[in-house]
Write a structure and sequence with these properties.
elongated, mainly alpha, 81% helix
Length: 94
């Protein structure tokens, strides 16, 4: 689910303070929010491979079977997806 940008950005710090019990937890909640937005900003092809690999725990062979692509293509999309995530989160999480 994607939130409206300005409303979401204003509400997130308040929500983080409500659900977290320490400054470290607030930082973690905010970092996870940034990461979720960054994953959502990936192209569909990159996002599906990253999600299947990271959250689904699938191998590149399993991803390739599921998506009808080669294992090398799955690995490349994963690598490109991680590079894009690093770029998208670099400034915000630095």
């Amino acid at each position: 689910m994607r939130w409206a940008g300005s409303v979401h950005r204003k509400a997130t710090p308040r929500l983080a303070k409500i659900v977290a019990t320490s400054e470290d937890e607030i930082d973690l909640v905010l970092a996870l929010d940034v990461l979720r937005d960054a994953v959502g900003a990936l192209s569909d092809k990159l996002r599906e491979v990253v999600v299947m690999k990271v959250w689904g725990g699938l191998t590149f062979a399993q991803i390739s079977e599921t998506l009808a692509i080669s294992p090398n293509t799955a690995a490349s999309r994963y690598r490109y997806g991680l590079e894009e995530l690093r770029k998208l989160t670099k400034e915000v999480l630095a």
